[in-house]
Amino acid sequence: MINKIYHFIVRLLPFKMVLIRIAAQLPILFKSNYLFRFISNVATYCNQQTYVLSNLGISNNLKVKVSIAHPIAAFGTPEIYTQETATLALSIALLKHSDAFIDVGANLGYFCFYVDEHNEQQKPIHYFEPDTELFQLLEENRIKNGKNFIAHQQAISNINGPLTFYRNLSDDSSGSIKNTFEGKHLLVPISIDSISFDSFAASLTEQKLILKVDVEGAEFEFLSGAESQFQKIEHLIIELLQDSIDQQFPLLMIEKYGYYAYYINNFNLEHSLKGEYTYVSPYYNWLFSKDAPSALTKKLIGTAFKVIENTRS
């Protein structure tokens, strides 16, 4: 009953558009969980195609154009972005020991803007986004905010050249070169350009890369296109959907490519010997690193991360 009354009051609120535009640019200090929930509810009664200028909860100097259909980006902060809070922090911690940050499947560019804000040594930031509309929006935001991210309007896969990409009209964060969400979401196939990681990495002078990969079911295509340049991947942070887990992606990374595997359970990095892990909602990300648990622990001294070593034989 109380919930119904609350939503009734929210629905009758005047000046909803004024409220959400102010909330998007509020100083980060005032972007609380409570305010986020309230403004997100208000936004549900507005046109979801509405765009606002947001500081992303990352820097008060940012003015990033985002749709209110992405409430965390529009009104939240990295701390409110629960499923990625630790992954964002891990990207920064490991970039200090790497030469460049590569964002594969950048979407709105949240990781790029966050990493840039904490990138004290101004190491190169590359992003890949094949979705035409998302790429154009990210480029607009990059330019308007004076960022020097290196942009690639391509998918990273196992081929060089044209490829079919499935734009996800139900959830634009879930587009993929695989029709993973067919029958669940509204997908529109479009032709895009693709490049293998091998071809891309061969052109770089940087030797120690940290990658954040979110390719919505195309993890093995990424993997098979990286065969000859794996030595440059120091750390791979990747979202693994259940299909990739079932096909033993972690075990392949461990046994074939020689990486140490860690399930990212918030700020606990749980070492996996054979791909075993216990899923904890809402965490889908893994870290594959050249560093054994002891070496990784040393790199993460002074951070909130705890490396939990698996000592079972």
Mind sketching the topology for me?
Elements: H1 2-12, H2 16-24, H3 33-43, E1 51-54, E2 64-67, H4 71-75, H5 82-95, E3 100-104, H6 110-117, E4 125-128, H7 132-144, E5 150-152, E6 155-157, E7 161-168, E8 187-196, H8 197-202, E9 209-213, H9 219-224, E10 233-239, H10 242-246, H11 249-255, E11 260-265, E12 268-272, E13 285-289, H12 293-299, E14 306-308
Parallel strand pairs: 3-4, 3-9, 4-5, 6-8, 9-10, 12-14
Antiparallel strand pairs: 1-2, 7-8, 10-13, 11-12, 11-13
Whole-number count of domains: 2
- Globally, the shape reads globular
Helix-strand sequence: HHHEEHHEHEHEEEEHEHEHHEEEHE
> CATH topology of the largest domain, what is it called?
Rossmann fold
Q: Helicity level, as a percent range?
A: 25-40%
Give the number of helices. 12
Percent strand equals: 15-25%
Quickly name the level 1 CATH class of the largest domain.
Alpha Beta
**Parts with pLDDT < 50 across at least 5 consecutive residues:** none
Gyration radius, to the nearest Å? 20 Å
How would you write the strand order of the largest sheet?
Answer: 5-4-3-9-10-13-11-12-14
Total number of strands: 14
Terminal Cα span: 55 Å
- How does CATH name the architecture of the largest domain? 3-Layer(aba) Sandwich
Structural class: alpha/beta
Could you state the CATH homologous superfamily of the largest domain? Vaccinia Virus protein VP39
Mean pLDDT: 94
